[in-house]
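Hi R.,

Here are the chain sequences for the assembly we discussed:
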Amino acid sequence: MLMLEDVRLRQGDFALRADLAVETGARVAVIGPSGAGKSTLLSLIAGFIAPDRGRILWDGKDMTGAAPGKRPVAMLFQDNNLFPHLTVAENVGLGLRHNLRLTETERDRVETALGRVGLEGYGTRKPAALSGGQQSRAALARVLVQDRAFVLLDEPFAALGPALKAEMLDLVEEVLEETGAGLLIVSHEPEDARRIAPQTILVADGRAEPPVTTQDLLDNPPPALRAYLG
Amino acid sequence: MARGALQVRRWPGGVAAVCVATLILGTLLAVVLRAEAGRGLGPSDWAAIRFTVWQALLSAVLSVLLAIPVARALARRAFPGRRAIIGFLGAPFILPVIVAVLGLLSVFGRGGILNVALRWVGLPEVQIYGLHGVVLAHVFFNVPLATRLILQGWQEIPAERFRLAAQLGFGPREMARVIERPMLRRAVPLAAVVIFALCISSFTVALTLGGGPRATTVELAIYEAFHFEFDLGRAALLATVQIVLVGVAALLALRASVAEGFGAGLDRVVTRSDSGGLGKVSLDFVSITAASLFLLVPIVMVAVEGAAGLWKMPAQVWTAAVVSFCVALASTGIMLALALPIAIAAASWRGFEAVGLFGIAASPLVIGVGLFVVIFPIADPFALALPVTALVNAVMALPFALRILVGPVRDVVESYGRLSATLGIGGWAWMRLILLPRLKGPLGFASGLAAALSMGDLGVIALFADSETATLPLQMYRLMGSYQMEAAAGAAVVLLVTSFGLFWAFDRGGRSHVDA
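And here is the predicted structure of the full complex:
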């Protein structure tokens, strides 16, 4: 279980409070108005920002001060998910070993992961030689080999068209099923939440609420969410 | 507060910054402490100060005045070879000064083509030694720089403003008053002050074309006090004067806040409606042609004379070439060892960039005298001539290297810092796999500049070298001093080819296999 225990953060005029827990393996959407702190919440969990107060716990262990790479999360960003000068296989391999000195078995795992996301034989290419969708797939292959307890997605497919985005969300689901990982996904689209996340965290008015059932939340939105959804 | 996605290690940058600051401030301190103020400044010292300021002022004003029509022509004309000319305007930066001086001598010197022509038509000859020559050489080096700075000003004028002017039916007079003059009022003083600062601390030009009671700069006076009289106290006193001069000039230049982008984005031609007309077209044509000839002919002369001189060179030239090559590589290595950690640290804390300013505010001769004062009691400074040269050259290249590297390092940290952090890549793996490959281009460019600058430098080595040791520029100077002009031209060709070759090789190496 991932717990944010009375976490508080203040940056100038911006403030965020979070006191919530996410079950292991749960799939949770993070929605709310722009600037409310959705990405900040993910940054707190990923370890890019330290909270002013409170603790972040994973299975009862305090990881508030842990370095981003030491946390049980794999993260995909809006862009810059691949290093352009490294091959696709090397980019995926970084999820296994930081110095890229991979063993034979590890190299096989990279190949398998690439095959799993439909990029068989693309390992030697550079990201620039891939389409936008293929780049997302390559990043997902790395998430696959990282094999962390939670996958954090910060609007990762915003640059893709609707059909491609749906395809990628399906692929994310398959990856989650395979690894048993949980999911936290920031999205502007309530439809994404319905599609992939049974639960939703609403971030609004300086608070990140504990996760509730997505269906109920979207069918009976509280005022802040209603204003945002329009 | 944001912890910063990537934990960048700042201490290596801190160590490098402290080394640079210690070297520069330490030598300055050594110079000031060693200075013998007892006798004060004599009349000849005051003459040197006056000459230094006067020649720098003249050089700055002339360079800028000549650059304005060239920059205007380049800004408003599109023609084949325009891009090549703009690229060529960057070349003097790495052109060894002594090579240019030799080229100017072969055009404007006693036996130069200009005087041959003047004699032929029966006119009096021109004299290149003294104030004329010093200013001529400075103008040669700085017209291209001024042109680039002013061209940049022209290109920063939004295209809409020219379109608006066309709509309003502006004639040349309104055009000048409303659009061009305000820009020139900003760009011209800036260019002038930068050139003034450069000319204050230029040594090689004064050494080769100046001299005597009426054309000695402070730097040259330092060299003479040191080299001919071996009067360390007086050299240190003059060096203190030079610190003040360079400091004031650097402050002036800083206030004008330079932002030369090494010619990036200068290939846009401003389309404007008032550039037609035979008068303007021919003015532009003459400006560009004259500037190109002024810059090219001396170099071509050196190349032609040097090709013949290659066979008349004494063996020392080749030895000196090898020595210079090694010094240039060592200097590049030292520069990288200093610049890279500082650039990495500067990516998270901008204050580190200020270290580069030390290099701008220091003059090689002053550092040289300071190092001599420090080394003299403990070791034989002459035995350390080459390592000291490599070190000082590296520190001199540092400000340029930092300007080139800091931005790209920051981009890598900003674009890929969080991804690196979330994957847990740090330390050496990050350097090797992420930073260095992303930085190849800028690293190659910075290394190329450092190597070429060191290869062509004639500064500290002139102070430290005994008759046994010489770098290629110094060897060339000695050949010129003994009137072996053909051999000197041969050495100039070797120097020219090595300098530009080193730059080309490093820059090219950095650009190969770079992916978006």
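The CA atoms of residues 148 and 263 of chain B lie 7 Å apart. Chain B has a mean pLDDT of 86.

Let me know if anything looks off.

Best,
T.
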